[in-house]
Amino acid sequence: MATISATGSHREPVTHVIFDMDGLLLDTEKFYTEVQEIILSRYNKTFDWSLKAKMMGKKAIESARIFVEETGLSDSLSAEDFLVEREEMLQKLFPSSELMPGASRLIRHLHAKGIPICVATGSHMRHFVLKTQRHGELFSLMHHVVKGDDPEVKQGKPSPDIFLAAAKRFEGGPMDSCKCLVFEDAPAGVLAAKNAGMSVVMVPDPRLDISYHTSADQVLSSLLDFNPTEWGLPPFDDAKS
Ligand SMILES: O=P(O)(O)OC[C@@H](O)CO
Ligand SMILES: [Mg+2]
Questions:
Q1: Which ligand 1 atom is at minimum distance from the Cα of 25?
Q2: Do the record's keywords include rRNA processing (predicted)?
């Protein structure tokens, strides 16, 4: 089934699109999960999706603090040391990052139709470069990319900072928030988009608790299920009428 839920039945037509990156365009959330499971196993603890839900989409140091606190490890492992340990493993994994289903099709479609598109990711510059190194041509279609270590992003998601900065940098910006559609996979990202006054399509991992779906305007199981015309955007050329 394409649409899991559509909590906001009234859809504002949009003119600009902002994409999250990790877990939405790129299948990189699995790398974070993998290394966090390895680190926790050293302490005979297990990683679960309730903790994952709190960490994903956030700036590295913010999610590291959540990790050590929620797992009760803060006395033996600082957030900073956790990041150092995680980093060594992540750096080897990121260059093999693959696209999520439907990401290439949707980006190419919107770009071809002249819809301004950009990326707003909690990832900092160094990680962004590693993750996108096999996808340079696709990411070059973005009008701009706002990263987590951008000076304008004072606070990570769920703060609206990153999406407001993204809306500002479009041609003729700042764009009206209500004209911007955000695609997100993370609960913190969905809240950040809503805090910025934008519409948001959530494409969550199926392991995420469905209680996190309620803030999104639409919830899809894949980017392949997105119907641009529902949002006032041009239809896919191969769309069936
Ligand atoms: O904002 P995104 O692109 O999901 O990046 C966050 C990332 O650093 C890991 O969750
Ligand atoms: Mg994400």
A1: 3
A2: no
List, for residues 75-92, the tens digit of each pLDDT value: 999 999 999 999 999 999
CA of 213 relative to ligand 1 center, distance in Å: 18
Edge to edge, the sheet with strand 3-5 lists 3-5, 218-220, 199-202, 180-184, 16-19, 117-121, 144-147
Of 3.90.1300.10, 3.30.420.10, 1.10.630.10, 1.10.150.240, the CATH number of 29-95 is 1.10.150.240
**What predicted TM-score, i.e. pTM, was given to this entire model?**
0.95
Interface confidence, given as ipTM, is 0.94
Instruction: Please give all residues whose CB falls under 5 A of ion ligand 2, grouped by chain where several chains appear.
Output: 20, 22-24, 57, 185-186
